[in-house]
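#help-structures

NK: newbie question. if I give both the sequence and a SMILES, will the prediction place the ligand too? trying with NAP
OV: yes, paste both and it writes out the complex. here, I ran yours:
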Amino acid sequence: MDMTGTTARTPSGHALSGRTAIITGASSGIGRATSLTLAGAGAAVVIQARRADSLENVAREISGRGGKVLPVIGDAGLEADIDRLLDEALAWDDGGRRYDIVVVNAGRGLLGGILTSDAAQWQDLYQVNVLGATYIMRRAGQYMIEKKGGDIVAISSVAARNLSPFGAFYGSSKAALSVITEALRRDVASSGVRVTTVMPGIVLTGFQEVAGYNAENFGNAVAPFGKLLEPSDIAETICWLLTLPPHVNINEIAIRPTGQVYP
Ligand SMILES: NC(=O)c1ccc[n+]([C@@H]2O[C@H](COP(=O)([O-])OP(=O)(O)OC[C@H]3O[C@@H](n4cnc5c(N)ncnc54)[C@H](OP(=O)(O)O)[C@@H]3O)[C@@H](O)[C@H]2O)c1
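OV: that's the protein plus ligand as structure tokens.
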């Protein structure tokens, strides 16, 4: 168990062996669990985040289980860091000097609505959730069209479609991401590239603290929903959709705790 109460489950088998996956925001939460799960399924993983210590810990966990991993410290909101991430993946011998899967996961929340959220954080939120995400998807899409295949999975949110009582402005960034991801799907579909929008409900991760939620208020609000999602629930869903036959593309998926009524 980690600090978020997560037990990362790594499926046995080699469903993804021979494939190389890039995962952004891999130092905690959903990105960490996805990195462990995809590596456990045989993928070589290139993982990115800003916090070096946490990222190195995830890398050690993966290599300790016999997985292939390349940590690349960087900011998923900065074009230069995204370029370096993709270049390092293409130069990595253990990953076959290629990449087949990109999980666009790095992102952050923000407490409040239009009137109440901290406007000083709007730019930072859009930089990573929308602009950085779009830039990596554009570059990966161009590369995958050339090699006529690949998977791009973007982590949006149920808050993209359902106004969240916790963070309506945050939801606007995920609404933009969902539209951009579907637009990308249309750009690349005829080249055999699959694109999936994953919209999680409430997952207990570092997200709530970064967003600035008051732990007690948040706990009271979600208590009626029962058991919340764990990062591994999202990771296993991603792993499943990546292992479907190449002609099957799950375009989008909403995944909530069973008891979650809203958003
Ligand atoms: N938790 C939920 O309830 C929930 C629900 C729906 C969607 N989501 C989405 O799921 C994704 C993952 O969030 P999480 O719940 O796993 O939260 P988390 O535990 O806070 O993880 C966020 C990850 O993103 C990274 N990150 C944030 N800004 C970054 C940046 N500028 N550059 C590189 N990495 C950055 C963080 O690493 P560093 O700080 O080390 O850079 C961290 O690894 C986010 O896009 C979030 O919006 C979460």
